[in-house]
């Protein structure tokens, strides 16, 4: 093979890798952007009148812009989201990627897509999610209350709750049942977005990583 031919093939191979890398970055950035859109809709929208009231007390947030649930009678569910923590007014971490899923989430017919914003009100609630795979309804001493779109009263009905889940669902039935679902860090995605060694705790608690693509969502939460 001639040197010129080898150079052409090498250059072609290198160019072929660029779109794949760009798509990979775009995939994670898209989730960050979708999470911002969901946060704006839920926290400042008219369908969740209590969400905004709770932000002054928030220790952190977990945003899942698309939790897909399907099947008949017993269904599976899955989705990804981002977790952020606050250490003081206007001081929010960069978002860490988390996965959410379950082999069975409630009784259902048909399927739906849910947008969920978890407002984490206590240090206990935040640490429970950070420390291990968090299972809704099975964590000793951690209370989660789910609130559907259009329902008021979260500020009074959820007294003592560690986490409030504001859920907006589209599909063949209204509402979302979170019992039995799990939440866990997606450290493969964290490393791809931030760099080698990035974990949920390293991003959210230790604040060792940053990405300029996440600045808009941090600026949104800096209001509270």
Structure write-up:
The protein has 224 residues and is α+β, with helices and mostly antiparallel strands. It has one domain (24-221). Helix content is 35%, strand content 30%. The chain has seven helices and eleven strands. Strands 1, 3, 4, 5, 7, 8, 9, 10 and 11 form a nine-stranded mixed beta sheet that branches. A hairpin with a 2-residue loop joins strand 3 and strand 4 (91-92). It is globular and about 35 Å long. The N and C termini lie far apart (63 Å). Residues 7-21 and 171-175 have low confidence and may be disordered.
Topology:
Blueprint: H1 3-44, H2 51-54, E1 60-70, E2 72-74, E3 76-88, E4 91-92, E5 96-102, E6 107-109, E7 112-120, H3 123-131, E8 134-135, E9 144-148, H4 154-157, E10 163-171, E11 182-185, H5 187-194, H6 200-204, H7 215-221
Parallel strand pairs: 9-10
Antiparallel strand pairs: 1-3, 1-7, 2-6, 3-4, 3-5, 5-11, 7-10, 8-11
| Count of extended strands | 11
Number of helices: 7
Shape: globular
| Overall radius of gyration | 20 Å
Mean pLDDT: 80
| Unreliable stretches | 7-21, 171-175
Number of separate structural domains: 1
Task: Find the structural class using helix and strand composition.
Answer: alpha+beta
Order of helices and strands: HHEEEEEEEHEEHEEHHH
How much beta, percentage-wise? 25-35%
- The quaternary state of the protein chains shown equals single chain
The helix fraction, in percent, is 25-40%
Ends distance: 63 Å
Largest sheet: number of strands, sense, barrel closure: 9 strands, mixed
